[in-house]
Amino acid sequence: MNLGGQPTPPTSPEPAGSCSPGSAGTPGPAGGGRERAGKKSLDRLSPEYRQRRERNNIAVRKSRDKAKRRNQEMQHKLLELSAENERLHKKIEQLTRDLGSLRHFFKQLPPASFLQPGAGSDCR
């Protein structure tokens, strides 16, 4: 833990001519603040930096395409389920109407007319 307000010295020697942010004698994290612990700073013109940026751009593109595809699949599934829901609601309405018709039909029959022995086959 660094309590003196001075930058922590590097764990490995820095190459001559390189100057990392925060190591120029400025106290604390206010001396650039861009460098993260455990990551080395890369020159924006270096081939390694360009290669990392290109790989990152490809990964970002792939991630966004995947998210877009997932969103489209969800939209498609939503349409399918909405259509099925509508179909099931219509079936419920039809079955409710059929039930009402059958109840009305059986109320019109004389009492016990369908319970007479030998009047038909056993409906169990």
TrEMBL record:
KW Membrane (keyword) present: no
InterPro entries referenced in this protein's UniProt entry, alphabetically: bZIP, bZIP_sf, C/EBP
Source superkingdom: Eukaryota
Domain BZIP: 46-109
Keyword terms: Activator, DNA-binding, Isopeptide bond, Nucleus, Transcription, Transcription regulation
Main location, first listed in the record: nucleus
Residue segments, region Disordered: 1-73
Keyword Lipid metabolism: no
Cellular component terms per the entry's GO annotation: nucleus
Membership in a protein family: Belongs to the bZIP family. C/EBP subfamily.
Protein name: CCAAT/enhancer-binding protein delta
Organism of origin: Alligator mississippiensis (American alligator)
